[in-house]
Design goal:
Blueprint lengths: L1 E10 L2 E11 L4 E5 L6 H8 L7 E6 L2 E4 L4 H14 E4 L11 H11 L5 H14 L15 H13 L5 E5 L7 H16 L3 E5 L3 H7 L2 E6 L2 E6 L1 H6 L4 H10 L1
Length: 246
């Protein structure tokens, strides 16, 4: 579902991602952890071209984009990739002037050309799926952080993506609200959604991930299944990192 080759990202002289490769299989849940500033969120944003890679190739569900591709071709390919890969952000990014329902129907109507009636029916299904049918007419300011994030997940799912990208989806939430978002993510994984998750939620990585990556200084420091990664890491850098967070 995802193939990355030789990905580099520079911000001016700062070399943030240093030539990483990655393959993600259908239905796989991949969790990326690591210290702040290691390049995790930048990597995720490169996958759907919210950040423009400096070099390398990204392929999402058979749509391939090379860094530096002609602008017209790239715009078309980026549009295709963004329809295949939904993204959930750390800070929800809901439109404050729209209700929960309004936020969820906006993209299907404007991007996919879905009729308003179709979009509303789909959005109501998605809001029910994340447990927020009763909040359809509420504005974001009247929702808790956990509810806002679940609306954001419903919004992404309403586009019928094949892949979901999560950029630290619980880090802006109060501790008591984290569980309700993690529960929705666990249900998505159970239903076979391909997922790449940047998170500090170690129990999610342990319980749900198929593979865990430690990213450090722009490279993969270690990749492995969670039982090995957390109980018997191969790399000293991984052992140091885990000693600080476990």
């Amino acid at each position: 579902m995802i193939k990355v080759r030789g990905l580099h990202k520079y911000f001016g002289p700062l070399h943030v991602i240093k030539g990483v490769d990655l393959d993600v299989m259908p239905r796989e849940v991949l969790v990326i952890i690591g210290p702040s500033g290691s390049g995790k969120s930048t990597f995720l944003r490169c996958l759907n071209f919210l950040e423009q890679p400096s070099a390398g190739t990204i392929e999402i569900d058979n749509v391939e984009i090379k860094a530096g591709e002609r602008a017209r071709d790239q715009r078309r390919h980026i549009r295709e990739i963004r329809q295949k890969a939904g993204m959930v952000f750390q800070l929800f990014n809901l439109f404050p002037h729209m209700t929960a329902l309004g936020n969820v129907i906006e993209a299907p109507i404007t991007v996919k050309g879905m009729s308003k009636e179709q979009a509303i029916a789909k959005a109501e299904d998605m809001l029910e799926w994340v447990g927020l049918s009763d909040k359809r007419d509420e504005y974001p300011s009247r929702l808790s952080g956990g509810q806002q994030q679940r609306v954001a997940i419903a919004r992404a799912l309403c586009m019928e993506p094949k892949i979901m990208l999560f950029d630290e989806p619980t880090s802006a939430l109060d501790p008591e609200l984290i569980g309700e978002v993690v529960e929705v993510m666990e249900r998505l994984a159970d239903e076979g959604m391909t997922m790449v998750v940047v998170t500090h939620e170690i129990h999610f990585a342990r319980d749900v991930a198929d593979r865990v990556i430690l990213m450090d200084d722009g490279v993969w420091a270690e990749i492995g299944p969670p039982d090995e990664f957390f109980t018997n890491p191969k790399e000293e850098r991984t052992r140091q990192f885990l000693a600080h967070i476990l």
